[in-house]
């Protein structure tokens, strides 16, 4: 079993781990969770542009990668890890899901994530969404032992992380867990947003295009099936409006690669539409393709008259220049902004200047 990199992470109990909703509030995750009805692991099974980002709270913040294998002592990341997520219901600690082929990070990482009212996600593990499996609440049956009952090395201790280094773990428990994972025949909660799901067309019940677009409103839990309405709308009317609305919904789902392609199709119908160009700029920012985001931002500046919207684009471009290590362009852009004598976003500009050490 030493060749298998397996780690157990004890998190709060939730139904779907796709963000906190009225129907899915974390519990049994310690005092912070109890007091705030919140936790960073609440998005551990949220498909964000075909990746899932897993968080585990850990004292000292750093994960001890070398405890999986001493050869990782001087490494900050390790790939090919099986992350077993466990949580406690009202009875016992159970396996709720797992990541296969995950990348594990020694220190916390962040990713831009403007979905479900979050600006970014903090994570210790990352995996392809297709390799992430979550079991429905009623089917979570596999109990993970506690060291307090079974003895040291024979289960989870007080820490939220169990590296499972003991002889018992390596030779008895981990083989059982891996067998359970490989041979599980039960149900899963949908995690991955599949291309086939995004292409489904809703049943035509006689609604017009306006009514179909209105059907997208109010879907706060990110149901992929709702996109069928806009797909039907496009079938009825292929126009900038319908193509752009589909891009917006893909964007809302966090399917940024698909949203980018959709927005480009919309631009074919209206090449200088500033809303669409702005959406593309943001999607490239979300996916950390900053140089392309800059291109769209510069095009927007050429199209826009002086307005708060234009000022916001200018400031966003300054941030993008800095992310691309183009400090000289950022400084030039700051000077151009200051010539406008506007108070809009002035606090952001002042903070940027302070960080750059310029007056």
Rg, nearest Å: 24 Å
Mean pLDDT: 91
Broad structural category: alpha+beta
Q: Count up the helices.
A: 13
Instruction: Assign an overall shape.
Output: globular
Q: Assign a percent range to the helix content.
A: 25-40%
Q: What is the count of β-strands?
A: 7
Please report the distance between the alpha carbons of the first and last residues.
59 Å
Strand content: 15-25%
> How can the largest sheet be summarized?
7 strands, mixed
Low-confidence stretches: none
Q: What is the string of helix and strand elements?
A: EHEEEEEHEHHHHHHHHHHH
Summarize the structure in short.
With 359 residues, this protein is of the alpha+beta class. The chain has 13 helices and seven strands.
Write the layout of secondary structure elements.
Layout: E1 6-11, H1 31-36, E2 51-54, E3 77-88, E4 93-112, E5 120-128, E6 132-134, H2 147-150, E7 161-162, H3 167-183, H4 195-198, H5 209-214, H6 227-236, H7 240-253, H8 256-269, H9 274-286, H10 290-303, H11 308-323, H12 327-338, H13 346-356
Parallel strand pairs: 1-3
Antiparallel strand pairs: 1-7, 2-5, 3-4, 4-5, 4-6
Helix pairs in contact: 6-7, 7-8, 8-9, 9-10, 10-11, 11-12
